[in-house]
Structure formats: C-alpha cells, structure tokens
Design goal:
The structure is a single chain. By secondary structure, this protein is α+β, with helices and mostly antiparallel strands. It contains 4 helices and 10 strands. An 8-stranded antiparallel sheet has the order 1-2-5-6-7-8-9-10, covered by helices on one side. The chain has a two-stranded antiparallel ribbon with strand order 3-4. The longest helix has 17 residues.
Length: 161
C-alpha cells in the first residue's frame, strides 16, 4: 500500500511539473528592469488569425510580462512583442534584424503600438540592430534586452512591483 501511494505521488508530481513553463534563456538587460528570464508558455494565443505558443519574457524588477509570438512569412520571421505597456514587432530577414511598428492587421485583435509609451529615439536606434546573417536563428534574447529600452517611462512599470 505504501508503494502504491508513493508511486501515485511521484506520478502526480511529474504531471504537475509538465504543466509549467519551459525555461529557454536568462540574462541581464542593462536597464532599470534588471535581469530577464525567457520561458515558453503552455497556453496558446491567437495572433493575426493564427494560434501561437508564445515565449514569455519576465523581468526581475517588475511584474510586467511580455509575450512574444513568432511567425514565419515569405523571406522573413516576425516577432510580435505584446504587453499591456507597449506592443511592437521585430523583423528578421536576410538584410537586417530590427524593430517596426505593429502591422495594421493586428488592430482587429486589439494590439497596436502606443506612441505615448514608445521611446522614439531608441526606436530609431533599433531600426537595424544586426545584419541579416543567420536570420533564422531565435532572436528572443536580443528582444528581451532591446525591448526594455523602448519603454518610454520605466518608473511607472517599476513602481508596480
């Protein structure tokens, strides 16, 4: 009887751990938001009419979570970076990896880039972050570092924690 209880407890613990987020990467943002952690979410979300299993970026000094949905289009990979504070997209193709305003198609889903929360100077600095070499590689770590610099007023975000 003890073995049955022990085995069922182990199976239950393994099942619970499988529902958590899967760790992908961690690092430092060199911004007031502190260190970041990237995980793959276990819940799917709809973006632009397609179902995505998003990456979730969380920061050390705030409760803000950023979801990143990745789509592969003809000749480029788009990273839709969505949060309550600022939604933006990054594009990776053969020529460059850089930031852009969200596509108009996403407005029907309720996502748009807010001009009030966007740091315009940093936005134009990030139009071309890297060259296009190895453009199919995952860029979520770069997004976690550079996204934190796009937020115009980080004091409001830091005060929420």
């Amino acid at each position: 009887m003890k073995r049955i209880i022990l085995i069922s407890g182990l199976i239950f613990a393994i099942c619970l751990s499988s529902y958590g987020r899967k760790f992908v990467a961690a690092g430092n943002t060199n911004s007031p938001l502190g260190k970041y952690k990237i995980e793959v979410d276990d819940k799917y979300m709809m973006v632009n009419g397609l179902e995505h299993r998003p990456y979730v970026i969380s920061f050390e000094n705030t409760d803000m979570e950023v979801k990143v949905a990745v789509t592969m289009e003809r000749g480029c990979r788009k990273y839709y970076v969505l949060s309550d504070n600022l939604s933006i997209q990054y594009v990776s193709n053969r020529h460059y990896f850089g930031v852009e305003m969200l596509d108009r198609e996403l407005e029907k889903d309720g996502f748009r880039t807010s001009a009030e929360t966007l740091n315009r100077v940093e936005y134009f600095h990030q139009k071309a972050i890297t060259g296009g070499e190895r453009w199919k590689r995952d860029k979520t770590s770069l997004i976690a570092v550079f996204y934190s610099q796009l937020i115009n007023n980080t004091e409001d975000i830091l005060a929420s924690k």
